[in-house]
Write a structure and sequence with these properties.
Blueprint (H helix, E strand, L loop, with lengths): L20 H9 L6 E4 L4 H10 L4 E4 L28 H6 L5 E4 L3
Parallel strand pairs: 1-2, 2-3
Length: 107
């Protein structure tokens, strides 16, 4: 379905089956979007491999929807628009790098 190939911002989760972890990561990498990806597993090995190999910004391990919270976003003032970085120190470094947020839940 097109639902699994589009980036949807709403209460929708696309679930796709893969024969193994490598195929699952290939499916994710074949999609042009990279907001988030999740894996449900009891294997620490597979969780670590997924966490390090998948090219998404937000990784969920045993979490369906990965939603990190930004309580202190930085934005512009006066002639700048919301989202322009005027951050200092760590905020500026994070903006110009490619960080990955990983949220995990183990039972």
């Amino acid at each position: 379905m097109s639902l699994a190939r589009e980036e949807i911002f709403g209460p929708v989760a696309s679930i796709l089956r893969a024969k193994d972890l490598d195929e699952a990561i290939e499916i994710i990498h074949g999609n042009p979007y990279g907001n988030a990806g999740s894996i449900f597993t009891s294997s620490g090995k597979w969780a670590r491999q997924f966490q390090h190999d998948v090219a998404v910004g937000n990784v969920g391990i045993n979490i369906g929807i990965v939603a990190p919270m930004s309580f202190f976003p930085f934005g512009g003032r006066k002639d700048s628009f919301f989202g322009v970085t005027h951050g200092q120190g760590r905020d500026a470094i994070r903006f110009f790098t490619d960080p990955k947020v990983v949220i995990q839940r183990w039972f």
